[in-house]
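re: the backbone from monday

yeah here it is again, tokenized this time
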């Protein structure tokens, strides 16, 4: 992941703190001298389901990002080291929820983001080099893309299709949208190649009927399964069958199959690229 800058955005605010990694023209008020907590320092295997075996997802256990910033006031415009520090203090305090977002950029393109809480601001005032250090305790330690990525599903055969993720470096959830084109008692997703014992199955009351829409979201922070029938929307998490394990996408090639391939069609498959670190 190539990065040129990081932006700190307090939740709900339009103002932000720009921080550059490389500022050869010396125009930035804040430049990053050092950053820690952006790698995969501590990895844990988190349980996420049990079928014929126990399934664990490798994740960064926790993340504290510490950004050490150099301060560069524009004295001609009336800036001082004190006014730059005050800007940071007031910006951090402006969030209504306490949350702050770190956005990682390559030039003008936003690559990934992290959310968390400011836990410490250090700014020694009697040092020769004026610096400021910001520590952020991250809520979700995995870096996620700002924008959703779509899997190409045009003309796919649901009895076995490939979902490629060429961006991520870490496993993550996904969202699949199915339309029922023929009555079926259930919808079952399987892996026909790598792990043939894995499955995710939903069986709803008297079954799914023509034109039902079923959305399966396996994002670990927002897992849900919804049924759209006519103008009504139902949460049908209780329809998930015993032994089912939520679908997880891995970096590279993923192969899925739908057991009821002649009874449903898929019209959307998306995910947010996820990263171990930068």
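seq for it, each position gets an aa:
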């Amino acid at each position: 992941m190539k990065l040129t800058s990081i932006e700190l955005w307090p939740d709900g605010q339009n103002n932000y703190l720009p921080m550059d990694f490389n500022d050869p023209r010396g125009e930035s008020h804040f430049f990053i001298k050092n950053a820690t907590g952006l790698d995969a320092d501590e990895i844990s295997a988190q349980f996420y389901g049990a079928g014929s075996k126990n399934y664990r997802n490798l994740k960064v256990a926790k993340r504290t990002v510490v950004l050490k910033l150099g301060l560069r006031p524009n004295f001609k415009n009336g800036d001082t080291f004190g006014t730059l520090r005050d800007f940071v203090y007031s910006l951090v305090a402006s969030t209504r929820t306490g949350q702050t977002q770190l956005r990682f950029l390559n030039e003008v393109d936003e690559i990934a983001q992290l959310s968390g809480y400011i836990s410490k601001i250090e700014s020694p005032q009697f040092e020769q080099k004026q610096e400021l250090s910001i520590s952020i305790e991250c809520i979700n330690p995995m870096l996620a893309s700002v924008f959703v990525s779509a899997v190409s599903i045009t003309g796919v055969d649901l009895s076995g299709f490939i979902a490629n993720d060429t961006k991520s470096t870490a496993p993550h959830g996904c969202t699949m949208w199915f339309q029922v084109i023929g009555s079926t008692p259930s919808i079952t997703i399987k892996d026909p190649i790598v792990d043939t014992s894995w499955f995710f199955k939903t069986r709803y009351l008297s079954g799914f009927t023509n034109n039902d829409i079923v959305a399966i979201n396996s994002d670990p922070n927002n897992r849900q399964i919804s049924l759209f029938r006519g103008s009504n929307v139902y949460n049908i998490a209780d329809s998930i069958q015993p032994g089912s394990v939520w679908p997880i996408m891995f970096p590279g090639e993923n192969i899925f199959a739908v057991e009821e391939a002649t009874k449903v069609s898929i019209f959307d498959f998306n995910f947010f690229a996820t990263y171990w670190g930068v």
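The radius of gyration is 23 Å. The chain has two domains: 5-144, 149-275.
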